């Protein structure tokens, strides 16, 4: 095990490694950047936006900051609330986290006649709920007996994900881009989906499968990833949009930005989360082709996927995630060089325009806006964990100053429509609170629990053994929702073993012939008295699991692994020495 993990090289989550302390008087401190005061400004930024969302926009998806009202954008899920939930905990606000968990349980319904983006619903809703579920014990929520393998937020995440499954029923296994949450895929739905909309599921769906014991989610996510891999061009590149029925590429531009971006990100993060060599080797193959064909002077251009000829010499703001991703595979020098290129663009405009023409050094017509995206700040956060280079804190400072100066309005923060004249748009995307503010805060908060280096952790005891959680090494989904990789090992008893254990327990207690341990099933959601008897819980579970009745949730819908099983936390294998 350890050898395999070492062979993965240095791609393990760098932000969680122990790093040398920068001597006092050097770097950012010497340059007069007061980290604590910026951290507090970021906190104030969060609450200015969040409180106005609650006041003026809830229960709609998003705040419209110029008119102080709300609108539904990606469905009708109170999306900003789901997206902001784990940020609340990262800022240390446990009471509001607990309140919102209750509000969401009462108020969010996925049985609605709404056409939803499969990609956006996954990364924002499923990702946000999974992350909040795994953090809920840390936030002081009273969790049920089977947690983290059961719980109300997990059930909601699973329900939302099930609504997306019909999209994956295609000849290729690549999903449609849109699904109706009530009726499935609409007749006449376009079969053309972007690459990211096909390859950005493994983090959330594998987490769901590992926690719930239902393999269907991870299976469809893997099938989609492999279909893209199979359809790459002879020179090793993928295009931008593909027909999910015929597997013909419709848009043949290859690059690292919009339409492709998070496919590459999820190969790396999926490999880390699942300790999966195959996903990592796919990424490393792509990485070679990307360097060979699209990289020029530490910029990345768009090229024709079959010929490799340049199609657009453009930098898109979404590409700014790439240095952070490079840092995760240990390629820190290249990451820094590309980051510094992107930072020069930020300094030119006080934000990253959606498109930037590299040869001309200016914005592209109709693409001059900055919707408060997180990607450059995200890369700065990762690179700062890896290098402690004070330049990265300076980007954070510039972002705080820019966003406050240009984008802040009475009712929140508004998308910047044009970086040249600072005109604003009446929209505040939910990713502003999910990602931009979170990554800024984590950049300025070196002691946050998210940056845990494994020196402290929690042990959760279940009737089946112990399980380590909150040891660090969190993997952020592409909406900045952190997933604890250790949690995937809490619920992974194989089904057959599970039945054996249960049969043994049944035999043992039937021998006792006492009335103390009734072997009857309690009600589906019995979280009351019966939760106190682990034996009781396990015996009722056999019945629960085997019945195919929809929405049965036993107290222990999946037992945890014993402590001597492999735990992929920070790339170390913990063994029980007793």
TrEMBL record:
Keywords: Calcium, Endoplasmic reticulum, Glycoprotein, Glycosidase, Hydrolase, Metal-binding, Signal, Unfolded protein response. Its main location: endoplasmic reticulum. It is found in: Endoplasmic reticulum. Residues 520-559 are annotated as: Disordered. Residues 1-24 form the signal peptide. Coiled coil: none annotated. InterPro entries: 6hp_glycosidase-like_sf (IPR012341), EDEM1/2/3 (IPR044674), Glyco_hydro_47 (IPR001382), Seven-hairpin_glycosidases (IPR036026). Residues 521-546 have a biased composition (Basic and acidic residues). Ca(2+) binds at residue 478. Its EC number is 3.2.1.-. Its cofactor is Ca(2+). The active site is at 120 (proton donor), 261, 354 (proton donor), 375. One of its GO terms (molecular function) is mannosyl-oligosaccharide 1,2-alpha-mannosidase activity. GO terms for biological process: carbohydrate metabolic process; endoplasmic reticulum mannose trimming; positive regulation of retrograde protein transport, ER to cytosol; response to unfolded protein. GO terms for cellular component: endoplasmic reticulum quality control compartment; membrane. PANTHER family: ER DEGRADATION-ENHANCING ALPHA-MANNOSIDASE-LIKE PROTEIN 2 (PTHR45679:SF6). Involved in the endoplasmic reticulum-associated degradation (ERAD) pathway that targets misfolded glycoproteins for degradation in an N-glycan-dependent manner. May initiate ERAD by promoting the first mannose trimming step of ERAD substrates, from Man9GlcNAc2 to Man8GlcNAc2. Seems to recognize and bind to exposed hydrophobic regions in target proteins. Belongs to the glycosyl hydrolase 47 family. This is alpha-1,2-Mannosidase.
